[in-house]
Amino acid sequence: MAEQLASFAARLAGACRAAGLPVGPDRAARFAAAVAAVEPSTAERLRHCATATLASAPEHVAAVQRALEEVLAGVPEVPADPADGRRSPARAVDGPAGAPAPPAGPPVGGGAGPEQEHGLVASAREQLGGRDFAELTPGELAALESAMRALRLATPLRRTRRTRPAARGRVDVRASLRAARSTGGDALRLVRREPRREPRRLVVLCDISGSMSPYARAMVQLLYCAAGGIDAEVFTFATRLTRITPALARTSPAEALARAGEAAPDWSGGTRIGESLRAFNDTVGVRGLARGAVVLIVSDGWDTGDPAVLGAQLARLRRVAHRIVWANPRAHRPGFAPRTGGMAAARPHCDAVVGVKDLDSLPELLAALTGTASRTSSW
């Protein structure tokens, strides 16, 4: 029941405060909302909900998990089978719909089964799919992790200098002569090869200014969850350019976001898009990183600098990049048109401008990256 979930959240918040953590009623409410949205099926997922909503710093995670274990230890167990009286590891904590709370699931690193995982993805999509990223709490954003993992970022293929065996293609003379040794020198079979194709590099330039902070966090989480085998380089910018690719490797989305914030000292600061693009072009972009790559710029276009600088730098980038996609959360608003400021200067140099503000709008972005979407949005 909802009352029992609220009571459980209040007890957990009290245990966190007793451990010296700054957990007030607002964070307790976020935890309860995250549990209601995710409907965690294992204790591990319940711990994810707790750390995402109650820990305000990396050093608080261990204390939050200890507080959760203490509160769960105080909840009576219920029999799994009344016939034999055995105890079940499930705790008698009811969720908003009266269902038993998550059982003590697999050890850390485990997960729900395929059917449970599918249910969690469907639940997250149904409840949060149309919610603006700016309206989501940290717990609700974490709840979208499974749904984002169901997506796949892809870029167009490019020909490489490496080759692979093929039924049709150029004759590999050396390989054909080696094969002829087994037939007395007669080349009865010609060995052919064709160029190998690989996905193009994805370069992401993400605006982390105050107006873009919630969308930047969602995009960083998407890159972590759905990148697959794409060779991706990620930079953030506001008043300066920061490479955060190493911060996104081999860690959870929540920790990746925390590391990204530490690596980018101007998170939630002002915005100088043109100057940041100049720094990217001058250092690594035009020199090679952006050559033949798909460049994704995530920004609302609110630039405190000179729009002419932005236009000039995008023109430089356009000459070396394979494709430039601009993701703007404001593009979904009725009547939006890039007639002034940064977006007006950027539009002529973009292959696609898409509105990305929630989970439901991400397929449009994925299509734009592969080149299967239109050049611009409906405007």
TrEMBL record:
CDD domains: vWFA (cd00198). Gene3D superfamilies: von Willebrand factor, type A domain. Residues 76-116 are annotated as: Disordered. It comes from the Bacteria. Residues 199-371 form the VWFA domain. InterPro entries: UCP010256, Uncharacterised_CoxE, VWF_A, vWFA_dom_sf. This is VWFA domain-containing protein.
